[in-house]
Amino acid sequence: MIGSRQPLRAIAGLAAFLAIGLMSACSLEPTFRDRPQREKIPCYTEEPVTYLHIAFDGHRAIVVDKGEQITLNFVPSIWPRIEDVYEGEGYILTIDPEAGLLRPDGSGVGPCH
Over pLDDT 70: what percentage of the chain? Predict the structure, then answer.
């Protein structure tokens, strides 16, 4: 009887190890939030140099686009990813550490360095 429990314990131990590994690789907190609170990031597009203005406030990013202030919320993920994603009002901001803003109409700004 004792010998028959060994494989179950090994499987349970492996499952716990994998769960801890997955949780440590999750994107539940912004990775790039250690940046300054306000940033003016230069973007290299077809237009002359454009800037993406972002202010970070915890799990929120406030972006100024075409004179309009948009508040975006950090999107946590249980899956590992290499960028921070903020969404709101149809906009999607990604930072990896380059920044890019996708507008609701499909146009965008970025990459911004």
Answer: 61
